[in-house]
Amino acid sequence: MSATILFALGGSALVGLGLYGVIIHPEPLRKILAFNLLGSGVFLLFGVVARRGAAAGLAADPVPQAIVITGIIVAFAATALAVALLLRLFEETGRATLPTDPPPAAGAEP
Amino acid sequence: MIIAWTFDAILAIIVLAVAGWTIAARDTFAAVIGFVAYGLLLALVWVRLAAPDVALTEAAIGGGMTGVLLLVAVARLRAAQAAAAAETPGAALRLVAGGGCAVIAAALAASVLLLSDPAPTLAPAAAANLPQTGLGNPITGVLLAYRALDTLLEKVVLLLALLGVWSLAPDRLWGGLPGLKRHARGDDPLVFLARLLPPVGIVIGVYLLWVGADDPGGAFQGGAILAAMWILALMAGLIDAPPVSRRWLRLVLVAGPVVFFAIGLAGFPLAGAFLAYPEAYAKPLIIIIEVVLTLSIAAILGLLVAGPPERAPPPP
Amino acid sequence: MSLALDIFTVLAVSAGAFFFLAGTVGLLRFPDALTRLHALTKADNLGLGLVVLGLLPLADGALGALKLIVVWLFVLLAGATVSQLLARVAQRVGPSR
Predict the structure, then answer these.
(1) Does ipTM surpass 0.90 in this model?
(2) Site from A7, A48, A85 to mutate, B interface, most B CB atoms within 10 angstroms
(3) pTM of the shown model
């Protein structure tokens, strides 16, 4: 298999790894980290598709690469918003995790 | 040829190993450091995939700025970390989640191995129309000419994210100064670095913007470096963040999208469609858009890292 | 001539890689933060300098060679600043880790 397909398999593994991290970690900051990992795995798959589209004297198809550049910047903006939300949650409640819902008491309104 | 393949294989394995360590690390600080290292290694992977523009963006924004953002968050959330560790899920959930994610990864890998050969590509169309735009870098051509609408909407998304971050300030601090006050001590090595690096960094940022027309580079990469220099000076305490209610700051922020949009509207009478450039003026218009875009991007990225206002605005 | 330059490149880059390896061994084996910093800064800066030296014949023109050297100087600057800051913190926290 060529090196490009190797990177594509790596990208798929990163998607799986990132998704696992999002599910497993209780702290939102670790979830944000794992979500970034997931996103970069998807971008890697885009990059492989771009590399396979080499033609007309260019080393790679420029359209997926431009989309990945846009995606990296938007992912950073989303991460910044998520981190700001998390810090505000910490300031308001003093804890950095989302509370699990307590079981409703008998007779209490849902 | 075999050496290049071995290098790529080792690089892919190291990237996966660092990513695995980022997920598995017990301490959040160690995980963030692993993420920064992962970002830099990923930039190497992008170079091997013949995508130097993406490598620059990943190293600057994906590795650098996201790393700064997360490190600041980890430092602030240190007090709450011990409580969070108690909620780790048990082995059963881990097993089920791991199995599900392995299935998803395997499905993605299978679809990659079944990709059609020869691959469909837009490279001939991109290369054929590039001389009309006056550019030499096909990625800049895609970002600012073929898919200019995407870039315009992306700028609007960045502005909306910044508005979202600002709106998280308490009501009494609306329009105030982002971040905490830092004081520059005279003998601090960070102050030394913040005095030495920004002049050079600004030159490099402008150079990246200018050279992006024909070589790898562009508005986003240059803007990221300018934002990084501003953040460095902020963190060393050499300058203070401007209050977010200042008119000149808001003007700089919206100048990028507004100029872009105006040139796009001017495309209606001049060239027949939104964001169409008249033949003879394509390159000057693109350069104008790129320059204003770089300033806006630098301001937006810097303010996203600085965060919501935390100090009351000074009296006008 | 180009064969001699290629041999020089391979030798210099290999020497640089050896110094990086030495720095990593020091990172893993030394007992506390200050000694690890010492191993890293000394070995890694010299290692990077040797790698840059070995890549100079392969750079395109004088401008490319100048860019390589400037990159090395930037890494020196950043590395020196960061190790000073780390050492300051390590000295304040004490040899607990």
Answers:
(1) yes
(2) A7
(3) 0.91
